[in-house]
């Protein structure tokens, strides 16, 4: 019985050491962290945040105060982001206006609906 407990104890200790080594490993990304966002890449030092394209991460739509999570910041209508002003927030995304030019940020910029996919009816 003592031999079994000793073997089990060594196995648990070995697994704990492996888990600790993997947790500190830079090559093991956190599977729960969104990838590819400007905020994440800037935090990891992969890009310069001053020159990064804003990344739309979430929308919270309401009639009174729609807000958007852009590059890690919750922003509303009229707020500024890197020299641009937020002029619209809706189900399509967020419209930024800078020097008279509008830019639409989308949650899924590369998303294309399949042919024949029904779309929501708008009033």
Task: Note the beta-strand portion.
Answer: 25-35%
Largest sheet: 4 strands, antiparallel
Strand order, biggest sheet? 4-5-6-7
Task: Provide the CATH topology of one domain.
Answer: SH3 type barrels
Element-level helix/strand string = HHEEEEEEE
Q: Quickly count the helices.
A: 2
Q: Which structural category fits the helices and strands? A: alpha+beta
CATH architecture of one domain: Roll
Mean pLDDT: 74
Poorly predicted regions are none
Secondary structure: number of strands:
7
- The first-to-last residue Cα distance is 74 Å
Overall geometric form: elongated
- Percent of residues in helices comes to 10-25%
Description:
This protein has 123 residues and is α+β, with helices and mostly antiparallel strands. It has a domain of 58 residues: SH3 type barrels (Roll), CATH 2.30.30. Helix content is 23%, strand content 27%. It has two helices and seven strands; from the N terminus they run H-H-E-E-E-E-E-E-E. The strands form two sheets. The chain has a four-stranded antiparallel sheet, with no helix packed on it. A hairpin with a 2-residue loop joins strand 5 and strand 6.
């Amino acid at each position: 019985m003592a031999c079994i407990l000793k073997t089990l104890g060594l196995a648990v200790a070995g697994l704990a050491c492996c888990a600790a080594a993997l947790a500190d490993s830079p090559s093991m990304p956190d599977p729960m962290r969104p990838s590819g966002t400007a905020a994440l890449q800037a935090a990891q030092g992969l890009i310069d945040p001053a020159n990064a394209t804003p990344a739309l991460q979430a929308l919270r739509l309401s009639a009174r105060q729609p807000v958007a999570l852009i590059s890690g910041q919750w922003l509303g209508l009229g707020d500024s982001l890197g020299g641009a002003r937020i002029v619209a927030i809706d189900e399509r995304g967020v419209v930024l206006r800078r020097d008279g030019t509008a830019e639409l940020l989308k949650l899924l910029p590369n998303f294309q609906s399949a042919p024949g996919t029904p779309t929501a009816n708008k009033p």
